[in-house]
Amino acid sequence: MGYITARTSATKGTRYQAAVRVRGKERTKTFRRRLDAQRWLAANETDLARGTYVDPAAGRITLDAYATQWIAGRTNLRESTRQKYQDLLDRHIVPVLGDVPLGRLEAAKVREWYATLHAAHPSTAAGAYRLLSTICKTAATDEVIPRTPCRVSGASVEHAAERPVATVAQLNRAVKAAPERFRLALLLAAWCQLRRGEILGLQRGDVDLRGGTVAVERTWGTTGLGPPKTAAGIRRLAMPPNVVGAAKDHLKKHVGGEDDAWLFPGVGTEPANPRTLDRVWTEARVAAGLEALRLHDLRHTGLVWTATSGATTAELMHRGGHASPVAALRYQHATRDRDRDLAKRLGAMARGRST
Asked: How far is CA 296 from CA 166, 181, 285, 301, in A?
């Protein structure tokens, strides 16, 4: 597969050039000693035989340049996802690691970068690490590097602080404080566990008052109208009776008669602006004394309520539009917490007193 050639010159003496052919191209390196040339040749022949050979020249591309190519090559990314990835690269990855050639991006350097980022932005570090790890895995697959340098155990797992869960009474106070034309939006977020974009993407034809269901088929956000992020996001959900009643009243007062009329109309022919709904919730939560509760926490609250009511993992996945059980399992802790509370009450009964 390879060979060694002795070359002699008056100025440098004898040198030994080792050569190996890779994919039709000859790779060479010159050494002072024949033994070093033999070792280099043997190592490269072994890598070729194992299918693990990586051209050293390929690893000279910087992380910044390769990441740019990686983003451009992902034609199936949603625009919002593309913007998220680019923001993580621009703000947290490229400023520190962008100038490093991929072939010299070592595990220790990645570990140091992650530790610094996690200390400053713990909620962002996991997402940035996942993106870097995915890019490096692609580089390894492309044989730009022999293997990924992203080997920080547990770095891709987010450890976000537990979000608050509202009570029914608190939700009702906030809904009452909101403008009438947006009250249904808050009810859908909590009782039907819809995301902001899913709520704003609803049309009259998506609401079946007779069947008591609402269909999620599209989302509306800052990047425009589009389908849910995954196929699991397309779903039809049963509405609790209180939401059916609110939806009937809302359709009558605030929605046009056509099936494609927006449930929460905005300016012109578009749905309401996402920032408008955020502002509505901010004012409503302050009026209800729920300053710590974000709009997305209403969905979180609803999923916790659903888990506490006895929903299975599959049922939680359906209600939440989750593509995998990982996200749905986060809400199972609610049933465990409730079980512990019940055990305490049983213990109190056994001791002859109530709690």
From this structure: 12, 19, 12, 9
- Ordered by start, the domain boundaries in the chain are 2-53, 60-141, 168-337
Q: Name the token pair of 8.
A: 């002699």
Do residues 129 and 85 make contact, with C-beta atoms less than 8 angstroms apart?
no
- Given a contact cutoff of 8 angstroms between Cβ atoms, the answer to whether 212 and 239 are in contact is yes
Backbone angles phi, psi at 205, to 5 degrees: -65, -15
Measure Cα distances from 237 to 90, 197, 211, 286 in Å.
Answer: 39, 16, 10, 30
60-141 and 168-337 agree in CATH topology: no
Query: Tens-of-pLDDT digits for all 355 residues of the chain?
Result: 688 888 888 888 899 998 888 766 788 889 989 999 889 888 878 777 776 666 666 678 999 999 999 999 998 888 888 999 999 999 999 999 999 999 889 999 999 999 999 999 988 999 999 999 999 999 988 878 888 999 999 888 776 567 788 999 999 999 999 999 999 999 999 999 999 999 999 999 999 999 999 999 999 987 788 888 888 999 999 999 999 999 999 999 999 999 999 999 998 899 999 999 999 999 999 999 998 899 999 999 999 898 888 888 898 999 999 888 877 777 766 566 666 666 776 777 777 765 4
2.30.30, 1.10.150, 2.40.50, 1.10.3710: CATH of 60-141: 1.10.150
Mark 149-181 as b/e (b = at least 16 C-beta within 10 Å): bbebeebbeeeeeeeebbeeebbbbbbebbeeb
**Catalytic positions, written as ranges:** 195, 296, 299, 322, 331
Fold of 168-337: hpI Integrase; Chain A (1.10.443)
Answer yes or no: pTM beyond 0.70.
no
Q: Are 165 and 190 in contact (CB under 8 A)?
A: no
